[in-house]
Amino acid sequence: xxxxxxxxxxxxxxxxxHNWAGNVSAxxxxxxxxxxxxxxxxxxxxxxxxxxxxxxxxxxxxFTAAAATDGVLIRPQxxxxxxxxxxEAGTVTVAAGTVLKxxxxxxxxxxxxxxxxxxxMEQTVSGATSTGTHGTGRDxxxxxxxxxxxxxxxxxxxxxxxxxxxxxxxFAAARLGIGALGVVTALTFAVEPLFFLTxxxxxxxxxxxxxxxxxHHAENEHFEFYWFPHTGNCNTKRNNRSQGPAAPPGAVSAxxxxxxxxxxxxxxxxSFGRAVPATIPSIARIASRALSARxxxxxxxxxxxxxxxxxxVEMEYALPRERVVEALRELKAMVDRSGLRISFPVEVRTxxxxxxxxxxxxxxxxxxxxxxxxxGTPYQAYFTAAERIFTEYGGRPHWGKVxxxxxxxxxxxxxxxxxxxxxxxxxDPDRVFGNDYLRRVLGD
Length: 444
Hints:
Shape: globular
Distance between the termini: 32 Å
Number of strands: 21
Oligomer: single chain
Helix content: 25-40%
Structural class: alpha+beta
Number of helices: 14
């Protein structure tokens, strides 16, 4: 078994683990990188025998402590790659440690694609689905909703194979399990033949985009927009299927838009804004007016995803779709009358209802509002004020993003919450996969 940093007789521990944003850290007793499912099962059994908790961690893109542990930290990166493709069934089975970027590239070479995806692809497939990573879509839902089967190592080291037909109650919950039910070892996704998307990006006023939100949602397969705080300006993006051919942005314009403006200059502006917060509203007005419209066509992952190198902390809530404009207007009014200085745009996306027990879109058509703050900038006042608004609308926080909600709240906003916790009691009665975060959000 590939194991690193085991605790010695002196009680020394491994080096601290930090998430991508740097707002969460943990010092596990030992770190295990299993080279096979058998080694992973043995690692779970051994940890339970030693009285240690177990958590699997992907690339650390969650902003919560969902993967933090002082017990055994399992890194599944050696369990990676496509295991099988069933073209007749339209599915692909991949190991849990596969990074989404690698999966997208491999699928494209096979002439295949996921139907929908989020806007970054640095996460492992198991980490992304276990926390509810999603993009935007009128008809197509989160990455977890595209799962057709999964394999799960439970607290006693058993390997469960789950689907709608096999252990369906586990399948209903474990597609988005927050690491509470076991360690996912493989996922089977629905895929389809590679297709083209035409992206239309266009600046639009806040008043116009909110007034026309329902229309844009109805007319486009994938619609999202970004509002720039301290301004009345937004940028919209509409992605729709196209016959092609590919017509990507030119190399120079793509570099200017995606690297210079979205990463390099954005990094510099945020660093300056952090040092001199009073300049942020003026910078936001200049930046938002500098946006220009563009249209391009390419294969899905090249349209849905983009590089995100500027680090930040994020809170995101799913609201009933019909209430999102009202909530967003309230958020804007709060920012406008406050002394807050917000340098990151606010992102709005949508998702259809799904049937996953603890999905943020479980049983209801949803829209998401995501608020961000640049890494190293105090975010508590902004997030607290935003969360107060979101919870008034029955919002459900993204499981991998900053929030302060607890089990009592979730029992109110998730009709199937008790179903999930009962399943957890059955699969992990001793809380081998427990940690402080799960104790807060699920109870104990």
